Write a sequence for this structure.
């Protein structure tokens, strides 16, 4: 019953967390000459993290033990962004694009968090029975 | 946890933008500085930013968390403005004084750009902080 209680949101949270770091790096390097903006292909990384078992899976010695979906998201999945307009200094960070992606990622992160929170309160309700 | 990286990344960017603002302030303050020697007159200074692609100072290229550092502060090579003012106390033997090569318009736009970049990074830090606080409060 407690296998995979949070569904996809456990991994989604990890990937969104990683993407937040990548987008923050883009924003931080908005004025760095030659910096190439990067982003995570969300669906690709998520499907990878679901397909591959964790690199060090926990050994299950009893059927009642709880398994976790996976720890950190897999490496890779980082891709370079293609800029709408090239800049003279070779920097491909476009502020509006990055800010839009950042806030979108923020909303998605909070959505996943909300789903997890709702699931927890649902289970608490079931445990308390009132 | 990668959410904590945001503090390092945005922190490094805020530091770099602060240095940029400092050089801008220095340039604007010295925009009218004069000297009788062309080699000694104040020259506009600009920081050179570099992405921290190595793993020093919290940067991690593997997961894309790359901060920014100031590689150095370069002096502008534009020749200083030469004006003929024989009455000037600093004038050289030919009667010329040299004014710094600071371009005020360029510095003002630089200042606006640095201001915006700084604000963006503050926003990124605040967002990461809010998300982390929500993660801590998870299940309550």
């Amino acid at each position: 019953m407690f296998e995979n209680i949070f569904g996809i949101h456990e991994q989604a949270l990890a990937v969104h967390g990683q993407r937040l770091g990548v987008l923050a790096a883009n924003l931080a390097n908005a004025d760095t000459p030659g910096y190439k903006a990067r982003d995570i292909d969300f669906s690709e990384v998520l499907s990878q993290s679901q397909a591959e078992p964790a690199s060090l899976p926990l050994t299950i010695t009893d059927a009642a033990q709880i398994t976790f979906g996976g720890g950190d998201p897999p490496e890779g999945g980082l891709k370079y962004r293609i800029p709408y307009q090239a800049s003279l200094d070779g920097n491909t960070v476009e502020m509006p694009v990055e800010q839009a992606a950042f806030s979108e990622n923020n909303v998605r992160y909070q959505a996943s968090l909300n789903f997890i929170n709702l699931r927890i309160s649902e289970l608490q309700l079931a445990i308390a029975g009132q | 946890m990668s959410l904590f990286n945001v503090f390092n990344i945005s922190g490094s960017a805020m530091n770099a933008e602060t240095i940029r603002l400092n050089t801008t302030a220095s340039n604007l303050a010295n925009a009218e500085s004069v000297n009788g020697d062309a080699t000694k007159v104040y020259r506009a200074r600009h920081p050179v930013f570099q992405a921290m692609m190595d793993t020093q100072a919290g940067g991690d290229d593997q997961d894309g968390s790359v901060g920014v550092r100031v590689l150095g502060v370069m002096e502008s090579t534009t020749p200083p403005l030469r004006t003929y003012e024989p009455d000037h106390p600093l004038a050289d033997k030919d009667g010329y004084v040299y004014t710094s090569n600071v371009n005020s318009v360029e510095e003002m736009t630089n200042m606006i750009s640095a201001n915006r970049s700084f604000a963006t990074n503050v926003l990124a830090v605040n967002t990461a902080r809010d998300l982390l606080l929500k993660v801590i409060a998870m299940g309550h």
Helices of chain A lie at 9-28, 42-51, 95-128.
